[in-house]
Write a structure and sequence with these properties.
With about 120 residues, the protein is mainly β. The protein contains no helices and eleven strands. The strands form two sheets. Strands 2, 4, 5, 6, 9, 10 and 11 form a seven-stranded mixed beta sheet that branches. A four-stranded antiparallel beta sheet has the order 1-3-8-7, with no helix packed on it.
């Protein structure tokens, strides 16, 4: 019943930028928090950023703080992840997820997007 559709992944050089989008098909989109996670080959899925349903609270993993920005536009049912100063270690599949609160654990989220590949070349 809830569908999250992601876009914006691709190949970029180190130091470059990408903007990811996640469109949610939910009548109550504005009532939910959203998170961004990523998973690199051979590693566990890790928290990247979260945003509350009001957008007033955001949280970031230490590895991306100062480089990534999460935002949302409730009128468009869309969550964004602006990624700047990308590093090769940012290479991963990025997922958006919907939950009740913007906690930094996968267990806090009930619905997930299909993931979009981000590859950063050196």
């Amino acid at each position: 019943q809830v569908q999250l559709r992601e876009s914006g992944g691709g190949l970029v050089q180190a130091g470059g930028s990408l903007s990811l989008s996640c469109v949610a098909s939910s009548r109550t989109f504005s009532s939910y928090a959203f998170g961004w996670f990523r998973q690199a080959p051979g590693k566990e899925r890790e928290f990247v950023a979260g945003i509350s349903w009001t957008g007033g609270y955001t949280d970031y993993a230490a590895s991306v703080k100062g480089r990534f920005t999460v935002s949302r536009d409730n009128a468009k049912n869309t969550v964004y992840l602006q990624m700047n100063s990308l590093k090769p270690e940012d290479t991963a599949v990025y997922y958006c997820a919907q939950g009740v609160r913007a906690f930094n654990t996968t267990r806090a989220y009930d619905y997930w997007g299909q993931g979009t590949q981000v590859t950063v070349s050196s």
